[in-house]
Description:
There is one protein chain. By secondary structure, the protein is of the alpha/beta class. The protein is built from eleven helices and six strands. It is 44% helix and 12% strand. A six-stranded parallel β-sheet has the order 3-4-2-1-5-6, sandwiched between helices. Helix 2 packs parallel to helix 9 (235-247) and helix 5 packs parallel to helix 6. 30% of the residues are buried. The structure holds farnesyl diphosphate.
Amino acid sequence: MKLLEALPPGDRDRELALSLDPARLPAHIAIIMDGNGRWAQRRGLPRIAGHKVGVSTVRSVVEDCVQLGIPALTLYAFSAENWKRPRTEVELLWRLLRYYLRREIDDLQRNNIRLQSIGRTEALPDRVYEELRDVERATAHNTGMRLTLAINYSARHELVDAVNSLIDEARIAGKLADLAVTENMISRRLYTADLPEPDLLIRTSGEMRVSNFLLWQIAYAELYVTETLWPDFNRTELLKAIVDFQKRERRFGGIGAAEPAESAADVIPPEALPGDEFETEEIAVSSQ
Ligand code: FPP
């Protein structure tokens, strides 16, 4: 873990980093960056001041994830619903995105980061769209961390787009009448088809919502919600989230690894379990 080399003995973050198991780091962290507006309002500043500081947080979190060796990081930068914000705020967000891309391109290349976007980005103002595409193209061959920016993103749009592409493909192949959709067919048509599913979803600023973000992909993600507002989400906060993640027992719908893998039938004698008659009766009642 490169991060440890950068942290002197006695540094609080060093203790946190040392407590991590490098073999069990999340393969993909997704973050709902929330609280920029509140951060600014609490200081009597305009909301845009919070977004500006939020960009610095993006830079530091990206750097920390690279140093930790996290393979994939996805940031929710602009939701499809964010167009409802005042026009001046939306325009400022586009300016900040362009500023970030221009400023970071050299660092992205130096750190071997591949930047990609997900969402209906063709709806962005032309110049923003072009600059985003330029950075995506310029970093396309990088083999290090995958940095994905969700921009004009909606998980429902993503699912609708996936289903429509399945229908189109089947129609073109003349097989629409035989189309039978599987989970795998949907997963392969999501914007994130070539990324692992997020293991850890972080949301800053305390709201207990997933806000239409990666709804399919977070089916088994561990959720971590912190009261900390995005502009204050520093390296210590990131490390705390990963430490907390490593304490969770991930069961993916099964039973815990520490529990004996015996079935209920091994413990409870079969005659004590509800029999066929019981089930038939239930079905008969429910079908009336
Ligand atoms: C949520 O805070 C934040 C956003 C909607 C925008 C996030 C954008 C950035 C951090 C800057 C640009 C991004 C990149 C990748 C360069 P909020 O305004 O909803 O805060 P509030 O809930 O306190 O009002």
